Amino acid sequence: MTDDEPLDQIDLKILAELQKDGRIRNNELAERVGLSQPPCLRRMKSLRRRGYIRAIRASLDERRLGFEVTSFVLIQLKSQARAAVQAFEAKVAALPHVQQCSQISGDADFMLKCLATNVEAMHRQLLQFAAIPEVQTIRTYPVLGLSKDAPLPLPDAPYPRQVD
Predict the structure, then answer these.
(1) What's 14's domain CATH number?
(2) Residues 10, 43: contact at Cβ < 8 Å?
(3) What are the residues facing 158 on neighbouring strands?
(4) E strands along the chain, which residues?
């Protein structure tokens, strides 16, 4: 397969199965998607090479690992100049409690997903954000509960997706 070849139904079945269980063995995956093992493995390698599969990792339970507080933090910067944005992103990238950092539009410039062991730890994290010179305002939204955590919805095939 070439890197620009569109996804077909079998590719999408492979992706769907991997979202359910990233540790699935190739023989079982091949059986589930209706292929023999060698072409299934070739397709999976192609999906990785082409960037459809970024990573396969375990989904861990934050609470069992001691992270009692999940929060979304909205950050507004003093300036949206490229240098300010890049400086902020570099500082946030170095903070292990920040799980995701998304640049957004609207009243805030960034939305962060953060984990903390308790409320006091969350407060210390907010003080770290406040110490970043580029930060103007911080709004925090602690998560009370998770109602949905679903895999990506997959489109119908063929699906040529151009990513810049």
Answers:
(1) 1.10.10.10
(2) yes
(3) none
(4) 69-77, 98-103, 110-116, 135-142
Nearest to 76 by CA among 19, 134, 151, 32: 134
- pLDDT tens per residue, range 48-65: 999 999 998 888 899 999
How wide is the angle at C-alpha 59 spanned by C-alphas 92 and 26, nearest 5°? 125
36: containing domain: 9-49
What is the count of structural domains for the chain? 2
Q: Which residue has tokens 């199965």?
A: 17
For residue 127 the two structure tokens come to 């003080």
Total residues found in the chain within this entry: 164
The secondary structure of residue 162, as a DSSP letter, is -
Peptide bond into 158 cis (omega under 30): yes
Given pLDDT bands bounded at 50, 70 and 90, which one contains residue 120?
very high
Q: What is the pTM of this model?
A: 0.79
